[in-house]
Design goal:
about 475 residues, Growth Hormone, Chain: A, 2 domains, about 70% helix, globular
Length: about 475
Amino acid sequence: MPDAAAPGSPEPPTVGSAEPNPLRGLTRYTTYKRRWFFLLVVSLLNCSNAMLWLSFAPVADKIAHYFRLSMTEINWLSLIFLVMSIPFGIVATWILDSCGLRCSTILCAWLNAIGSVIRLFPCLGFMGNYNFTYLMIGQSFCAVAQVLVIFSPAKLAALWFPEHQRATANMIATMSNPLGVLLANMVSPALVKKEEDIPLMIGFYIIPAGLACFLSSACIWESVPPTPPSLGAATSTSEPFLSGMWILLRNKAYAILALCFGGGIGAFSAFSALLEQILCVKGYSNEFSGLCGALFIGFGIIGAFLLGLYVDKTKQFIEATKVGFCLTTLAAIAFAVVSQIQGQMVWIAVVCSLFGFFGFSICPICFELVVECSYPVGEGTSTGLVFVIGQIEGVIIMVLLEALTIQRSNAGPSKCQLQEDTTLDWTNSMLLLAGLFCIFSCIFVIFFHTPYKRLQAEANTPYRPHGAGKDEEDGASAQ
């Protein structure tokens, strides 16, 4: 039984359809309060997974010395997430669309929790001297879990939320991932004051992973609600996985969006990983680089929240995304200029804030747009393939950015601890990054055009929920 349902009023004229709807008078669309709990669990899981991904990076030097590892091995503890997402991404999309949201969420939660526990093994003296092996196995479990949870927001929003709440729900679940990155940057240095605190830090990250595992296993009982909240939810998995993939490969609008949005994901991943190296050669401290990274993510979460509310009310997915792409490109160009100048702390902080505000804000909107242009293909398949493409582009972009650096014999104001006699010039790399954003923006703005297929299908429903512009905690139904 739904939490509450209000009887529908007499059937109004059909909206946006020239043909009679065979479901007219037969279908009820109802929302359930427990959709917010499901959203909370997925958000907690996404946040926990991101914290595990970046937990070692902020204290890499202490981790390397404590476990007797090289910096290359420490970097691989983060890079394994990028590598594992490429082969396992397609498998995750099949699990999400074929086995259901509940199955994929519980599997993800257990993999994430098990991985967080295995990471603690090197801190136990009786486990042998296999520190890197245990850490890598634990990170690998968490990396496989990542591809399951990172594809879930669009699926969850489509199956459980009415159309006027989908973008907001997608935004909350999607932005919990960068929130986890932000928390890891704050928690790890705060807990590790000396090397003896490292077991405490690793143990601390087990808590959110274990909580997400308990909540998902004990409190989530179904993949879909008893009654769908919209027509789109009723038909969201109408296409089988393989046929859905074939449809996507022939969809021009989807291909353009996957190329441009995937490229944006890859560029942002490279930017996040290389920010400290880019700034330290110009004399900026690691603390300042960490502040810029925090501003980058923090303002991105604010931008995503505001734009999500706006798009939920206006449904202007394409317009908002195109404007966001253009503003992100301007911010990328500005960063390419100011990051190569010494003594510009204020301007660099401002540009990083704007870069995150404009770039991250369109991320959940793009995932919604992916579903709109690929409907009726399953949400897990359509969003998952975009993420895999983004990871591949991220690897290529990162390799290109590092390859374009030039070694200078005069270290100058560099504060990079690993480069004493020489320093790297990132000017060409930053120009490439700005140029890539220009290319992606131009392609998207000029060539991307698509109807909102899911919204058009839902326009055939005979009655729209009461109060379609506000939150309905007590549910809404149509008959």
